[in-house]
Amino acid sequence: AQSVSQHNHHVILSEAASLELGCNYSYGGTVNLFWYVQYPGQHLQLLLKYFSGDPLVKGIKGFEAEFIKSKFSFNLRKPSVQWSDTAEYFCAGHSGAGSYQLTFGKGTKLSVIP
Amino acid sequence: KAGVTQTPRYLIKTRGQQVTLSCSPISGHRSVSWYQQTPGQGLQFLFEYFSETQRNKGNFPGRFSGRQFSNSRSEMNVSTLELGDSALYLCASSYTGQLNEKLFFGSGTQLSVL
Question: Which residues of chain B make contact with A44, given a CB cutoff of 8 A?
């Protein structure tokens, strides 16, 4: 079965620290992967997405993610976090051709301490 | 351009009752999908509609149903409510629901079952 797993439930960092949030997927064939973010009191919004091509994907607000096929991973990174990055981050993947549903990881809550 | 609108924002029901939630997608979007978000399970896919047709259904009991109207607005219904149905129900829309499209999420309806 297709699944997406996120390693960390809650991450606490100080401002200016580097961030890496883990995401692993289990899909066969073509994969389409996403990172969504939910800021406190706001709706879910897309950070970045990967479909094909360059495995290093850049998104909004300085975030990037690297697709490593051999490791079935799509980790999210940011070199220097800010207090405003405090949010919950969700990795998600499409279940393949003919499917219109996203499978989400359980989310990682990021708290950035000023 | 208005975002995805979900009504009502909050609902309190008792066990055994039924509930109807509404979602108005972004103008021009014809795909509407529904997700259930809980602290323990994260986001789980309920169903997806396109042009009034359900194309995908998640692993939920038959008490969960939905429909889409000709103007792309969608409703979901939960009958015979159980305590475990307490959750944030999110609606998302996109132009066609294809794999490479970004989903736009609403703020959700928070359902509490007492």
Answer: 90, 92, 103, 105
